């Protein structure tokens, strides 16, 4: 009796940890998807009908062993890049991604030149 | 020249001000133009794409239809609607007018609705649909990239989405549909 109980106990723990891992994967995806009918919320934060439906579909796809990338592709093919909270790096978004870095580099150069110039003026 | 002076740190107040003005102007211009252009044109992401395959179970009986259609004879319209949706009532007369077009069939997708309410809606306002399919859980709507109700898609003979309207169709939209099917 004790053995049976223990076996069930461990099977239960094993199954619940598996489903927790599944949930974590799903939640990670929900957090990266924009709820398109809400104001600035991710799918994870939203309780709108649209968000609930999308979550259900994402969960089904995960159950069917689709990869995260396949799910993102499915969503962007229907709703565009806007549905991703992180803007993907591609030709049309290169400026967006690299302007801050360029500005930073230019700033450092200006700062460097100025200090060198001031020093040379002093000496 | 200003830039060089700026880099070297030896700038007059006048050149500082003019540089600031130029930078502000660039920012203002960038924001102004991005507000003018519709950057978030993702509503139209499905345009010119093939209609994803969906199987529509009839609202009335056990029959079903598989979209995109295989017969390739005519253009067809897909309209997502619900009896609880107020703007759907607004666009309904236009759908009834479109029904009269010989070379256009309308396929309805009844979105998250109660069957008897849906039937009542059609009895009361007229049935513009050649086929009424049911989408109880909203998954069919998501499959074709819809946000909610009402939405209307014009599909060409090859099964390509050529027009998409979010919200109730207007008289202008009606004209657009008529022009495209001619």
Task: Explain this structure.
The complex is a heterodimer of chains A (123) and B (182). With 123 residues, chain A is mainly α. Chain A has two domains: 85 residues, Helicase, Ruva Protein, domain 3 (Orthogonal Bundle), CATH 1.10.8.640; 35 residues. In chain A, 71% of the residues lie in helices and 0% in strands. In chain A, α1 packs across α2. Chain A is elongated and about 90 Å long. Chain A starts with a helix and ends with a helix. Chain B folds into two domains: 35 residues; 140 residues, Glutaredoxin (3-Layer(aba) Sandwich). In chain B, 40% of the residues lie in helices and 22% in strands. A seven-stranded mixed beta sheet of chain B has the order 2-1-5-4-3-6-7. Classes of the chains: A mainly alpha (123), B alpha/beta (182). Chains A and B meet through α2, α3 and α4 of A and α1 and α5 of B.
Number of strands of chain A: 0
Largest interface: A-B, 22 and 23 residues
Order of helices and strands of chain A: HHHH
Shape annotation of chain A: elongated
Features:
A: mainly alpha; Helicase, Ruva Protein, domain 3; B: alpha/beta; Glutaredoxin; 2 domains
Summarize the structure.
Chain A has 123 residues and is mainly α.
List the helices and strands and how they pair.
The complex is a heterodimer of chains A (123) and B (182).
Chain A: H1 2-32, H2 49-63, H3 68-79, H4 94-122
Helix pairs in contact in A: 1-2
Chain B: H1 2-8, H2 13-36, E1 54-58, E2 64-67, E3 75-81, H3 86-99, E4 104-111, H4 115-125, E5 131-135, H5 139-143, E6 151-155, E7 161-166, H6 171-181
Parallel strand pairs in B: 3-4, 4-5
Antiparallel strand pairs in B: 1-2, 1-5, 3-6, 6-7
